[in-house]
Amino acid sequence: MTSLPHRILQALDRFNAVHPWDHNAHYHRWILRQLPRRFGSALDVGSGTGDLARLLATRADEVHGVDSDPAITSRARTLTPAGTAATFSVAEAPTDLPTGPHDVITCVATLHHLPFAEALDTFRGHLAPGGTLVVVGLYRPRTATDHLLGAAAVLPNAALGWLKNRGRTTPRPASMTARTRPADMPFSQIAAEAHTLLPGARLRRRLFWRYTLTWRRP
User: Fold this and answer.
1) pTM assigned to the model
2) What's domain 1-218's architecture?
């Protein structure tokens, strides 16, 4: 017999499937608050359909969005109005990135697809002095704190799905159709390696199964 908690989780899964919302886009405005009002060059790694790159372009002289998926990169170009200071190209991170230097580098829900230490080392090398790196990433829950924070997000996740879709059944946004895989690094390991590579980096667990990392290059 299926237990009551399991049935509740199944019902929530079905509810979330018909009221989807983009957990990564939820943090875009937070990302902007970490950045200067104006800056020169920005690099968005794993740019997907270009939503964040287009937001960055409202403050930057130029934005380079890179993604390994040609189809989603083509979609980003289609969605970007002419004259926007954002361009998109297909590139494999971290080995094939525009070298910059960039005043801002962002990486949302992409770092867990990459070799972690190599990627952070590359981002550091591509930042201009005084430049800012902002990461929104995924981690593997392992500790009691991780699991409690995940449990605390379940009901707000459903409520936000309902509110953002105004109660309507809605197809998955294009930004949520890219290939994904689960994160395999726990938060403690992410924090330890990040602090070694990026002294002074600030990391926090966040709601909706994410963490954030911010670092300013000296």
Assistant:
1) 0.82
2) 3-Layer(aba) Sandwich (3.40)
